[in-house]
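Folds abound. Consider this:
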Amino acid sequence: MNPPALWRAPAPLLLASASATRRDLLASAGLPVETAPARIDERALEAEGGALAPLELARRLARAKAEEVAARHPGRVVIGADQVLECKGRVFHKPADLAAAHAHLARLQGRTHQLHSAVAITRDGAVEDFVETARLTMRPLDAAAIDAYLRLAGAAVTTSVGAYQLEGLGIHLFERVEGDHSTILGLPLTPLLARLRGMGLLAF
């Protein structure tokens, strides 16, 4: 006899992202997942949003991703996600290169910043979204320490808004981390699963 399925929708969950980290988080929770990166211009949407607070910007981008992919894949349960890094009211984007990563870290060192991780869930035209926030305090770092980190971490730092991967060498940059690990990785898993459960999409 086949074991009962955890996921109750007829098709796998559709993640509106090419992020391997987000995909792996969903798969590790036993969810069947497919990916379909959203076709949106994030910086244009940010500009249209005007003076949105960083938390609301993350929500807007997550919803836009979910809605764009859902429009191309009717009938599917779609997850859109976005993460915005805020420090002293300033929003940080992924650094273009190692020089930009150095500048990022020089601004973040010795300070506490927030990672706002937003998720939007679409199903049959309805959208539900939420935002979780983690607070990370980077230890004081001089230019030599930043250079040493970047030499070790390499170009991978350009794939993250903060120029670090906390699950890797980036952990050495911090003196305090407050928040759920999956929120820091960009997909708050526990509240997401609670909402999927409330939608009747999980077996338990």
Summary: The first strand starts at residue 13 and ends at 15.
